[in-house]
Every structure is written in C-alpha cells, then in structure tokens.
Amino acid sequence: MVLILATGDIHAPAYTSSFLSALEKAGSIEPDVVLLAGDLVEHNNIAAFKPVYEELLKRFGGVPIVAVFGNEEYVGFEDEYRRVYGRVRWLNDEVLDLEVSGTRLCIIGSRGALNRPTKWQERHMPGLRAYYKTLPEKVLRMSRECRARGCQKIVLLTHYGVTFKNLAGEPRDIWDYLANPDFERVLAEGGFSLAIHAHAHRGVYERVVVGDTPVYNVSFPARGRIVEITLE
C-alpha cells in the first residue's frame, strides 16, 4: 500500500495561510510521497513558494516531494525553480522511478494539455496547439516504457485536467481551457493506477473513474484540504 498526499493551486501567496493551516490539520499523517500538481505560486512569483516549501520539508522532508509546473510557473523558468527549491523533484514531461513501501512506483509528470489553447496562449505561445495535440500520445509512450521497465504502479501527475467528467461546478464554456479529454484514451490504454491534477478550482468532484483509473482533482481551492490517497 502506498499513501499519497496531494494538492495543487496553492497560488502562493494567495492561499499560503490557508494551506499552512491545512498542513496543521493533516496532523501526524506519514505519507510515502507528496505530490504537488502545479500553480504553486501566483504570476511566477518564485520567492512566494518559500514558506510553503520550508513547511513541507519540515513535515515531509524524509519522503519524496514531487511537483509539476502549472501555467502560473511560467515556461522558461523551470530551471530557476529547480535551483531555488532543489529538494523538490520537479517533473516536466518526465518520469520519476521510486521504490516506496516495497512498490516500484513510476510518476509521469507534466503540465498537461488543454483541449485548446486560451486566447492569450494563442497570441503569445506559438506552437502550443501542436504541443497540446501531441502530448497525450507522448504520455502514452512514456507509460508503456514504464511498464516495460517493470513499474508496478504508474501515476500520472499533471496540472491541467485529463477528462471533462469531473468539471461539474465550472462554467461549461471554459471546459476546453481546463482539461483535455484525449487523456481518457491514454488512461485506458496506458495501464495507469491513478491520475492526479489540479487547475479546476471549482470542480465539485474530488474523484471520478475513467475506465478503470481513478482521477483526482486535488485543487486546493476546490478541496480546502490536502487530499489523502491510498494506492493499493
């Protein structure tokens, strides 16, 4: 059994105080791994993550803390986050292999993809539409490589959502900018044990199932707490 604590959308400093209070309420939970699903800061305010980072290390410094970047951690600044917050294992379309609780766990981490770019992204990030189109297949290949290496459990950690099935609570006209349902096929074919994302601040569903894969929206504004997930 693997115990995961997961959250995202802290948007420091916006939710820093609330998040630190949630950490207090988490009490003596001893996870095997902590997963952070992006948008940890607001407007690329790299320094604002420091109090969250320090408290995470204080409480969970003995276990892997794994994060992906969100849209608020701006593209091109990934190495700066890695430099300043080096105890976090940042994944950017990458795989991390871990041995936890006797289980070979592979985490595939990515910002993820939207069903279509926002208008701002279309203007300022040429090539993003093609990236969003090809990313699901890339993630599927990564999952198959994990399985071939003998990974027993594969977790997909993204910032953007991976299905429309858990977006109730969000206005229907913005669903294209919250998730990409092409990942539903990836989850069905990739042998994933679990998918975790954030970005949907008002999503009312914490957990849905896509095929056989549980999908969790761990957005802190939506949940109001750090989500505890048991991976059997």
UniProtKB/TrEMBL annotation:
Tree of life domain: Archaea
Calcineurin-like phosphoesterase domain location = 4-202
Write down the Gene3D superfamilies for this protein, in alphabetical order.
Answer: 3.60.21.10
**What's an example of a GO molecular-function annotation for this chain?**
hydrolase activity
Q: Which SUPFAM superfamilies match?
A: Metallo-dependent phosphatases (SSF56300)
What sections of the protein cross the membrane?
none
**Per its UniProt record, what InterPro entries does this chain match?**
Calcineurin-like_PHP, Metallo-depent_PP-like, Metallophosphoesterase_sf
Q: Name one Pfam family in it.
A: Metallophos
Name the UniProt record assigns to this protein:
Metallophosphoesterase
